[in-house]
Design a protein that fits this description.
about 300 residues; alpha/beta; Rossmann fold; 2 domains; three-stranded mixed β-sheet; 14 helices; binds nicotinamide-adenine-dinucleotide
């Protein structure tokens, strides 16, 4: 039988990801700082412990899925962190989207304890997490990739090796910068079309058979009523939070600054998502930029 896998962070993404590990027959040992998050997984048979150190004491393969860099630093190196109790030879996979520099620091700290750290952020959202169709972008020592793949294949349709530790984050940050730019572009385009008298469903249909098509127009349309099963049809609840998008755009800006790379649209997208956070959109899905633009124009 399969040996247990630790899972830390059972939020919007971590919860369905851990469920897929259970489905594939892996006993799961999990924790989250917010006890309510653990309820569903506990009912499905996972063992719930108090903190990451306790998880590391029992499982030698651990996946972390946390909001941002400070949470990852805390879960690995904090007083009740993984590295307090980690077993030698453990494989630690962080699927959070964080600063690649922090991933490198965690890898160094893990190595000191005789453990291996890899960054494996994901693309795909809550739907893909539930259906096990995420894309994982993996950075770390190549010899460990096969071991990581065994677990990640239970949760994803694509597992891509990117290079040394931190390169998974680099790929993820680039993707999300383009995603934000595309979502804002789709939102302002749809809004303009509506104001020109076009039916939003018809406009989306035309975009999606034309060169303006993108993921935000054909899979995650931000206009309520255009598509079913997306956050725009549910008052922008669930999905990928505006605050998390603002965080990822900030990470992109940091890395662009460090490498002296011009990213003018990424910079503007960052400002727009930060403004949204300040205006009450922080926990709404990031496609709510459509609603934000409508409010800006007083509608
Ligand atoms: P979330 O806020 O829903 O979940 C994070 C969970 O981590 C929460 O339940 C929180 O209580 C827990 N947590 C925080 N600090 C902790 C600690 N020190 N120890 C234990 N638990 C802790 O976030 P999410 O939407 O699941 O996203 C997780 C990561 O995945 C983020 O980095 C995000 O950018 C990335 N991501 C999200 C999506 C998406 O669509 N939601 C898609 C791709 C990537």
């Amino acid at each position: 039988s399969k040996t247990q896998v630790g899972f830390i962070g059972l939020g919007n993404m971590g919860n369905p990801m851990a469920k897929n590990l259970l489905k594939h027959g892996y006993p799961v040992i999990a924790t989250d700082v917010f006890p309510e998050s653990c309820k569903e997984l506990h009912e499905l048979g996972a063992q719930i412990l108090d903190n990451p150190a306790e998880v590391a004491d029992k499982a030698d393969r651990i996946i972390t899925m946390l909001p941002s860099s400070p949470n990852v630093i805390d879960a690995y190196t904090g007083p009740n962190g993984i590295l307090k109790k980690v077993k030698k030879g453990s494989l630690l996979i962080d699927s959070s989207t964080i600063d690649p520099a922090v991933s490198k620091e965690m890898a160094v700290a893990a190595e000191k304890m005789g453990a291996v750290f890899m960054d494996a952020p994901v693309s795909g959202g809550v739907g893909a997490a539930s259906s096990g169709k995420l894309t994982f972008m993996v950075g770390g020592v190549e010899e460990e990739f096969t071991a990581a793949q065994e677990l990640l294949n239970c949760m994803g349709a694509n597992v891509v090796y990117c290079g040394q530790v931190g390169t998974g984050q680099a790929a993820k940050i680039c993707n999300n910068m383009l995603l934000a730019i595309g979502m804002i572009g789709t939102s302002e385009t749809m809004n303009l079309g509506i104001r020109l008298g076009l039916d939003p469903k018809l406009l989306a249909k035309i975009l999606n058979m034309s060169s303006g098509r993108c993921w935000s127009s054909d899979t995650y349309n931000p206009v309520p009523g255009v598509m079913e099963g997306v956050p725009s049809g549910n008052n922008y609840q669930g999905g990928f939070g505006t605050q998390l998008m603002a965080k990822d755009l900030g990470l992109a800006q940091n890395t662009a600054t460090n490498t002296k790379t011009p990213v003018p649209l990424g910079s503007l997208a960052h400002q727009i998502y930060r403004m949204m956070c300040a205006r009450g959109y922080a926990s709404k899905d990031f496609s709510s930029v459509f609603q934000f633009l409508r409010e800006e124009e007083g509608q």
